[in-house]
Amino acid sequence: MSASETHLPERLHGLDALRGGALLLGVVLHASLSFFPQQIWIVADDSRSIGAAGLFFAIHLFRMTAFFLIAGLFAHMMLARKGWFGFAKDRAVRITGPLLAFWFPVMAGIVTALVWNAHANGLVTPGAPPPPPPTYDWTNIPLTHLWFLYVLSLFCIVALILRAPFAALDRNGGWGRLVDRLTGALIGWWTPFLLAAPLALAFWLDPKWIAFFAVPTPDAGLIPHTAALVGFGLAFALGFLLDRRRDLLTRLAGWWPVYLILAVVSGVWSYVLAGGPSLTPMTEPTQAKAIAAAVVAIAVFSSALAAVGLCLRFLSGHSPMRRYLADASYWVYILHLPLVMLAQVWVQNWAGPWWLKLAGVSLGVFAVCLISYELTVRHGFMGKWLNGRRIPWRRPAPAAAIPAE
Question: Which residues form the signal peptide (predicted)?
Answer without folding.
Answer: none
